[in-house]
């Protein structure tokens, strides 16, 4: 009798792949059952308390004011409008905090490696001081110990009788655009496009001939000069609302509230102390032979740092920098401690207390922070991919 060449297959439950699939299916069913139980229990509790679910409350009248709004808002606005106002305030302080923290962090990180003993020690003291004090304490310090110690509006600190600083904030002239101002933003956009085109041309020209163009000066002159020229040609289509003290407060102008200033300063300085260490470690990760090679070519120190060291250090800096940007955005929710009207304060705070729609409001707030963080991560990952070392 011929012996079969194929081996008889054993029991199915002895197959590791099949057992793994069964265990995963059981775990998935258990997870779905748990989520279903939580949802049903929550719905039953809400129904027993007479709390309706859904997002219909967004069309209801909010009935409260907000001290800082980037769009038109009044007490008659809806909760949906409140959500947008809080979101814009969160984005404003986050974007400005990221910009300031990046500039300060890079400056301090480079200063930590300076050959100037005093400058290096001052930079080290900055890092060790601000990164070891809790962020909430720093927010309270800037708000209560610094900004709330400013004089009253009648005794405001003034600069040229145009800019005023007092306990209620920083008051400055407010530019009011006239009809002819519409051409200026388009001129700025055109200047940016021209600058990008000049940068591409300068890079190709340098690769072909070895001659570099002062693209930074040319770009700066273009971005400033073109809109300024259009602005002057159109007859300066702006009128300024200058603040004037009337009674116990200022009329006219625009006021930057102290809550925004305190939060912005604290977020920027606290995050910059971490970015400074990231920059320092990134620069030190670049082999010293790169600097020696640049010195052998008689490159100035500033060009060596900008063209040789920093581009290579960015491969180490960018991933950690992304984490600090995300931390800054999430840390902005501490604004509730001083009453800055961000998303958490006005929507997940006041709106939640008035409507009782906890699930919907908290879910929307969580989704906003998640989406913002994912967008920032995606943009930084794209930049990180461009800075990675390409193997040939």
TrEMBL record:
Keywords: Amino-acid transport, Cell membrane, Membrane, Transmembrane, Transmembrane helix, Transport. The chain crosses the membrane at residues 21-40, 83-111, 132-150, 180-202, 214-236, 256-276, 334-352, 358-383. It is found in: Cell inner membrane; Cell membrane. It is a multi-pass membrane protein. InterPro entries: AA_ABC_transptr_permease_3TM (IPR010065), ArtM/GltK/GlnP/TcyL/YhdX-like (IPR043429), MetI-like (IPR000515), MetI-like_sf (IPR035906). Pfam families: BPD_transp_1. Residues 87-380 form the ABC transmembrane type-1 domain. Belongs to the binding-protein-dependent transport system permease family. HisMQ subfamily. This is Amino acid ABC transporter permease. It comes from Modicisalibacter luteus.
């Amino acid at each position: 009798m011929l012996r079969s060449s194929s081996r008889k297959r054993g029991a199915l439950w002895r197959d590791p792949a099949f057992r793994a699939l069964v265990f995963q299916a059981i775990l998935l069913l258990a997870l779905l059952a748990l989520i279903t139980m939580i949802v049903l229990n929550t719905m039953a509790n809400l129904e027993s308390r007479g709390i309706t679910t859904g997002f219909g409350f967004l069309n209801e009248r909010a009935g409260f004011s907000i001290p800082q709004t980037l769009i038109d808002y009044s007490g008659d606005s809806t909760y949906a409008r409140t959500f947008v106002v809080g979101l814009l305030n969160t984005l404003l302080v986050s974007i400005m905090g990221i910009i300031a923290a990046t500039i300060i962090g890079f400056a301090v990180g480079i200063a930590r490696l300076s050959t100037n003993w005093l400058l290096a020690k001052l930079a080290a003291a900055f890092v060790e001081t601000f990164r070891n004090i809790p962020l909430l304490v720093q927010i309270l310090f800037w708000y209560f110990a610094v900004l709330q110690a400013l004089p009253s509006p009648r005794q405001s600190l003034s600069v040229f009788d145009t800019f005023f600083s007092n306990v209620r904030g920083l008051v400055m002239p407010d530019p009011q655009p006239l009809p002819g101002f519409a051409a200026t933003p388009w001129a700025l956009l055109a200047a940016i496009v021209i600058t990008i085109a000049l940068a591409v041309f300068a890079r190709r020209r340098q690769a072909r001939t070895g001659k570099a163009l002062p693209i930074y000066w040319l770009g700066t002159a273009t971005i400033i000069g073109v809109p300024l020229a259009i602005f002057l040609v159109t007859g300066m289509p702006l009128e300024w609302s200058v603040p004037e003290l009337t009674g116990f407060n200022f009329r006219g102008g625009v006021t930057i509230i102290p809550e925004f200033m305190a939060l912005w300063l604290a977020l920027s300085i606290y995050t910059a102390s971490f970015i400074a260490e990231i920059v320092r470690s990134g620069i030190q990760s670049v082999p010293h032979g790169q600097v020696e090679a640049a010195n052998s070519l008689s490159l100035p120190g500033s060009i060596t740092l900008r063209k040789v060291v920093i581009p290579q250090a960015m491969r180490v800096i960018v991933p950690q920098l992304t984490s600090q940007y995300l931390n800054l955005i999430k840390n902005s929710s501490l604004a509730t401690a001083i009453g800055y009207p961000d998303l958490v304060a006005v929507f997940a705070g006041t709106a939640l207390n008035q409507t009782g729609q906890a699930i919907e409001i908290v879910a929307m707030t969580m989704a906003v922070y998640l989406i913002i963080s994912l967008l920032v991560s995606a943009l930084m990952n794209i930049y990180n991919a461009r800075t990675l070392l390409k193997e040939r």
